[in-house]
Design brief:
Helix content is 34%, strand content 27%. It folds into two domains: 177 residues, Ribosomal Protein S5, domain 2; 129 residues, Alpha-Beta Plaits, CATH 3.30.70. The longest helix is centred in the middle third of the chain and has 16 residues. Strands 1, 2, 3, 4, 5, 6, 8 and 12 form an eight-stranded mixed beta sheet that branches. Strand 1 and strand 2 form a beta hairpin. The chain contains eleven helices and twelve strands. The structure holds cytidine-5'-monophosphate (C5P). The site of cytidine-5'-monophosphate has 12 residues, from strand 2 and helix 6. Cytidine-5'-monophosphate binds next to strand 2 and helix 6. It comes from Actinomycetospora termitidis. One of its GO terms (molecular function) is 4-(cytidine 5'-diphospho)-2-C-methyl-D-erythritol kinase activity. Its EC number is 2.7.1.148.
Length: 329
Amino acid sequence: MLSAVGPPVTVRVPAKINLHLAVGDLRPDGYHDLVTVFQALNLFDEISVVSTHTGRGPVDRIGPGAPGIELLGDVTDAQRADVPLDASNLAWKAAVALAEVAGREPDVRIGLRKSIPVAGGMAGGSADAAGTLLALAALWRLDLGREALMEVAAGVGSDVAFALHGGTALGTGRGENLVPVLSRHTFHWVVALQDHGLSTPAVFGELDRLRATSAADTPVKRVGSVEPVLEAVASGEARSLALLLGNDLQAAAVSMDPGLRRTLRAGVTAGALAGVVSGSGPTCVFLCADGPSAVRVAAELSGAGVCRTVRVAHGPVPGAKVIDGDPAR
Ligand code: C5P
């Protein structure tokens, strides 16, 4: 329970997967240029914010050592161990960034109800940051346009802007420059979650290492061009898209976690059209022909012993959305 002054504002934010992820060379700033196609899936985190500002006396200042973040709902021991509740949490960084733009203190508590896997390659931390931005913009009744909020999001992390945006989008730069992608059709997915995470910087680093050490005659394979992927998304044909799913980070994720090879094989054996590592992994996602097929694949995959748990999901779904307590409504 969040202790606070006033009612909370709650926002729901989707997970993302990458249908296509082309990774360029390491930039001087430590990032890589990407060309990626994001899709938001109906796996959601809920973020609640409440004010701790009483309006009387000094503001309840929450310093960098003691940010007001807590986990809500049924929290597993693994989540408790994996989600940082200190100033390194991206949701807290988002609160600090927005407070700065608004010229005020981050006098809030943030509650996270997590369904998106932690360190799973589905941008769960970014979703929490995006949800915090939208919830605080409502709580503080900020007169910020969507563009301004997207700009703050891009400064907080590479995937935060997409979590606000949702749907299907082409991402360039670090992934934060977004263009919506025409996608009127629903795709059906099975998501295989692991019992451990992979560090995003470590996976990018492993890809750099693999590329630097591969022999000239056997370079690390790169995904093809993005245009056919966009066409397949627009057509809504899962079979066409299945042939084109690709992720440059997959080789690095599999190199760090060789068991993923078995997971990817098992999904296809179970009847999925294709499987791919999501973002920096270790979550694997499997595209299925339709909803009933996804349910069958999920049932078979969950008995195969190649992942912690499976979820059936679909996409695209909209981005971050206020679901409760918008004081402006
Ligand atoms: O932007 P964000 O904090 O989510 O990125 C986490 C890390 O992932 C970066 O510090 C960097 O190591 C890696 N990264 C990258 N190129 C990108 C996005 C992320 O190298 N485009």
